[in-house]
Design goal:
heterodimer; A: alpha/beta; Rossmann fold; two-stranded antiparallel sheet; globular; B: alpha/beta; Pyruvate-ferredoxin Oxidoreductase, domain 3; 4 domains; 6-stranded mixed beta sheet
């Protein structure tokens, strides 16, 4: 059951982050997903990223819709508020929460059913709104809770467990995001935590909506031969376009040498974000430029046509302006502005009444 | 027709949509208001941008009865397409003012009507250049003719134009006044002015304002401290968020930075608008959305979430004619049941029913308090007539001592004093649990879900655990009956019958009651419902009368249904008078309907016209 709490007795030698918290402090209740579910690996990557970034555990808000993926927000950061809302509608709920309180770290977890079918409109408009939100799509090509129907991300010709091929073209969240102005687009694989953690960290710190498509195989309904979202298929066709590491501003976290250790020093290119953080790219492809939207789009189409699954932090716009920048709202969270500041008072009302004479 | 009817008549102006007649009509209405005379203006407009017929109805009444009347003494017919209909709608002895630049067909003539031809187009073609200007000025010119015919104070008109255009737009001021003089002089020279229906200055509007309900509700949102608004454009609620936006530009600007203390989000649809409002309410903001019935239909899944997860947020439903697209620019009270029970499963919602813009302002503030106090969605049901028409209402007042009721919120300090926080536990026995705001304290964290949950906030599929929470929520909502605005009750000695209504029907029903007592000696008690769940007085009123006639603007007697469902009152004590064709209610229809129900029919409901 999802309410089963894990034991809170930790081994004293567990590594601590700068807040003095261990990774276990970032965990949630026991997962109720199938053993081997890709989503649990994404949860583990989220825990790792949040721990590394030393996010105060109550300063995050976990937003989700409905589905297997949306359940996972209960499985990490139990000291954060979570909102498991309505099917396909996480983006709007997250938009409202973010509008009310811009200071929290918003982590949205959705799935391909939740985001690409019933919630496709909400996904698109949240991307356009560019609210400061990490938006993870745990993408497995099927509906799990209703037992294996194709989702909108299923590839043409991919076969269901019963052997029926999908004959409708897929919606690719990365290409979609690029085409509607997403300021951060990434694709990972739940089976590659080393690639995923830096992407999540960069996504959390990105001032805008960070769209992260994670191929996350469904071991029960979509991990068979003939499926293009299985572990085996993804590993075989996985192609890393660019390797990314996230370097937080110096006064905040992680010395740069640690990052270089992760990524090596050859062919490194830094993209500096407005908050002072740096995303460090190591070129895998010769002339790949993660800040050139059109080129990235072209690259993805080309590699997909060649039957590959291009991954990495594919695109980032260093000049991203988030929801609050566009709305021109105050720097402080709106929800607890002093009432005196919000209510113009009796005298102002009296003056205003003259306009209606 | 009586010989001289000072400050007691109705007129209607028929024009073509998109020809600038709105400003001319507004000018007439505002001039009468400035003369201190009770007045109302009803815009009867098409769902169209340009080209279709549109009307503006003005009623003047010295006793303050300004509900719509279908009895027009004077019609300004500026649209040849509707000549026949306009002439037909005049009372015998009435006047038709028309543009005589073109001849009026003899077949349209009606004996008991006086035709007043003014060559408006011809005069404006001579006096002004440019096609668009000539069309606009033609409409301003009929204002001048009306000023002569009805004795509208020309100084007041001049003053209003000066306020509108000021020195900066001197040329527009001059052009407008020139057009008005054209109309005025022609009428004064050619007709016996003023007509027996005419105006005389009074002192009845000194402490009043002229305002529409959407503007008033928006102002209420500003004063209540709302900081997040989400919406999707839909007639007739769009102007509510437009007004909120305009007020925020003036009143919600941080001094040093020029930045706003409100986030206004135009969503991709009503579902998202509801989601944004609920997300913001969950995160601690006073948040609202404004829509009409079609939007509420789309929002219902989210409304159920807010009800069950107990998230405060305010929904303004400016009702229009349904079902489906219905008639988007016409008024109705068709969403009473929809809002009371919106969403699947067992749900019931707090609803407020303002009667006019003054109550829109008042109830809008109250809605935020109730939403946060009861941690639930609250609906303010206005309608197109209240929301989009200008009403004369008392000036709004504000008590600087007001502080928002944020309800039971535990901050870090309060959390430190308790052992464990459980989101859905009824600690105080009033059905209202405590909530926490995300980000405030690790101890306050909980998981919000629309799926089954226990009183401790944990997921459940256990029958008893589920029922315990849903039963507690029912108690909470029932308790709101004592907190919503109580009904307005007016009693007459020895009245056996009661009239029950809500919202914008108020004016017509009260006028009907007065007239039936004066003309027929019929004494009737009156109750106007202002909130749901019903306050205890509602059932008492019904029980105290042999028969209660529920007057409302929908086909299916939705308020009556709600009364039979939600009060112990006997169904036999309730009957209905219903008007739902899309126009605001008039006393004539109320009188006909009530007499019919009481077996006193002088004229049948069918013979009453529109």
């Amino acid at each position: 059951m999802t309410h089963i709490a894990k034991p809170r007795v930790f081994h004293p030698s567990l590594e601590k982050n700068e807040l003095g918290l261990t990774r276990r402090d970032y965990e949630g209740v026991m997962s109720t997903l199938c053993a081997g579910c890709g989503h649990d690996s994404v949860t583990a990557a989220l825990i790792e990223a949040a721990w590394e970034l030393a996010i105060p555990t109550h300063r995050a808000a976990k937003m989700s819709g409905i589905g297997c993926s949306s359940k996972t927000t209960a499985y990490f950061m139990s000291e954060s508020h979570g909102f498991n809302s309505v099917h396909g509608r996480m983006p709007s709920v997250a938009s409202g929460a973010n509008a009310a309180n811009r200071d929290l770290v918003y982590i949205g977890v959705s799935g391909d059913g939740d985001s690409l079918s019933i919630g496709l409109g909400q996904l698109c408009h949240a991307v356009r709104r560019n609210l400061n939100l990490l938006y993870i799509i745990e993408n497995n090509g099927v509906y799990g809770l209703t037992k294996g129907q194709f989702s909108a991300s299923a590839d043409m010709g991919s076969k269901s467990k019963r052997g029926v091929p999908n004959e409708q073209p897929p919606i690719d969240p990365a290409l979609l995001g690029l085409s509607i102005g997403a300021t951060f687009v990434a694709r990972g694989f739940s089976g590659d935590k080393q690639q995923l953690v830096p992407i999540i960290k960069a996504g959390i710190r990105h001032p805008g909506l960070a769209l992260v498509d994670v191929i996350s195989p469904c071991v029960t309904f979509n991990d068979h031969v003939g499926s293009t979202k299985s572990y085996a298929y993804t590993r075989e066709h996985f192609r890393e376009a660019v390797e990314a590491a996230f370097v937080a501003p110096k006064d905040f976290v992680a010395p740069a040498d640690e990052i270089t250790a992760d990524i090596g020093s050859a062919d490194v290119r830094d993209v500096r974000m407005h908050d002072g953080s740096v995303i460090r790219f190591r070129q895998v492809e010769g002339d790949y430029d993660a800040t050139d939207r059109d080129a990235v789009y072209g690259y993805l189409r080309e590699r997909q046509n060649a039957g590959e699954v291009p991954t990495g932090l594919l695109y980032v716009d260093p000049d991203s302006r988030d929801l609050h920048d566009v709305l021109g709202t105050v720097d402080r969270p709106l929800w607890n502005l002093p009432f005196e500041e919000l209510c113009p008072g009796a005298e102002a009302l009296d003056a205003l009444m003259e306009n209606y004479r | 027709m009586k010989a001289d009817r000072v400050n007691d008549f109705a007129l209607k102006i028929g024009t073509v949509n998109g020809t600038g007649s709105a400003s001319a009509n507004g000018l007439i209405m505002q001039s009468i208001f400035r003369m201190g005379v009770p007045v109302s203006g009803k815009n009867v407009f098409p769902s169209n941008i340009q080209g279709l017929p549109t009307w503006y109805e003005i009623r003047v009444n010295r006793s303050g009865h300004v509900a719509r009347t279908p009895d027009f003494d004077l019609i300004v017919a500026m649209n040849p397409e509707t000549y026949a209909q306009d002439i037909e709608e005049l009372v015998p002895g009435g006047w038709l003012l028309y543009d005589s630049s073109w001849p009026m067909a003899d077949t349209l003539r009606r004996e008991e009507v006086t035709f007043l031809g003014v060559p408006l187009a011809e005069m404006c073609v001579k006096a002004f250049d440019g096609g668009r200007t000539r069309i606009l000025m033609k409409n301003i010119a009929y204002t001048g003719a009306l000023a002569a015919l009805l004795d509208i104070d020309m100084d007041v008109i001049r003053g209003l134009l000066e306020e509108t255009f000021g020195e900066r737009k001197r040329h527009l001021l001059d052009a407008n006044f020139k057009a008005i003089r054209l109309g005025y002089d022609y009428a004064a020279e050619n007709f016996e002015c003023p007509l027996p229906i005419r105006l005389e200055g009074m002192d009845a509007t000194r402490d009043s304002i002229l305002i529409d309900g959407n503007t008033a509700a928006a102002l209420g949102c500003v004063y209540a401290g709302a900081t997040v608004a989400a919406w999707y454009p839909i007639t007739p609620s769009t102007s509510l968020v437009d007004a909120f936006t305009a007020y925020c530009r003036r009143l919600r600007v941080e001094e040093d930075t020029g930045r706003s203390t409100a986030a206004i989000l135009q969503a991709e649809d009503e579902l998202a608008a509801a989601g944004i409002a609920i997300g913001a309410g969950w995160a601690g903001a006073r948040a609202f959305t404004a829509t009409s019935g079609a939007g509420i239909s789309l929002m219902t899944e989210f409304i159920g979430l807010a009800y069950y997860a107990e998230v405060p947020c305010v929904f303004f439903d400016v009702e229009r004619v349904g079902p489906s697209t219905g008639m988007p620019t016409r008024t109705q009270q068709g969403d009473i049941l929809l809002c009371a029970y919106a969403s699947h499963g067992d749900t019931k919602h707090v609803c407020l029913y303002p009667k006019d813009p003054a109550e829109c302002f008042e109830f809008s503030v109250q809605a935020f308090d109730l939403a946060e106090r009861f941690q639930t969605p609250v609906f303010v049901l206005s309608d197109l007539d209240i929301g989009m028409n200008d009403w004369v209402v008392p000036r709004f007042e504000w008590d600087d001592g007001y502080r928002p009721d944020r309800g039971k919120v535990l901050d870090a300090e309060a959390l430190a004093e308790i052992e464990t926080f459980y989101r859905y536990l009824d600690v105080d026995g009033d059905g209202i649990p405590y909530r926490t705001i995300p980000g405030e304290d690790p101890k306050g964290a909980y998981f919000t879900r629309g799926s089954g949950h226990t009183k401790y906030g944990k997921y459940t599929e256990d029958p008893d655990e589920y029922q315990e929470v849903i039963d507690r929520i029912a108690v909470k909502i029932d308790n709101a009956a004592d907190a919503v605005p109580p009904p307005e009750i007016r009693s007459r000695p020895d009245a056996r019958y009661g009239l029950i209504t809500l919202g914008a029907c108020d004016g017509a029903v009260r006028e009907a009651i007065e007239r039936m007592e004066a003309e027929d000696g019929l004494r009737l008690d009156y109750m106007r419902i202002r909130g749901f769940p019903f306050a205890p007085e509602v059932a008492r009123f019904i029980e105290a009368h042999d028969l209660n006639i529920v007057i409302e603007q929908n086909r299916d007697a939705q308020l009556k249904s709600l009364l039979t469902l939600e009060t112990p009152a006997s169904k036999d004590r309730l009957t209905s008078v219903l008007r739902y064709g899309g126009l605001p209610l008039s006393a004539r229809h109320v009188i006909a309907g009530v007499k019919d129900r009481l077996g006193l029919a002088a004229e049948t409901a069918e013979g009453v016209g529109t």
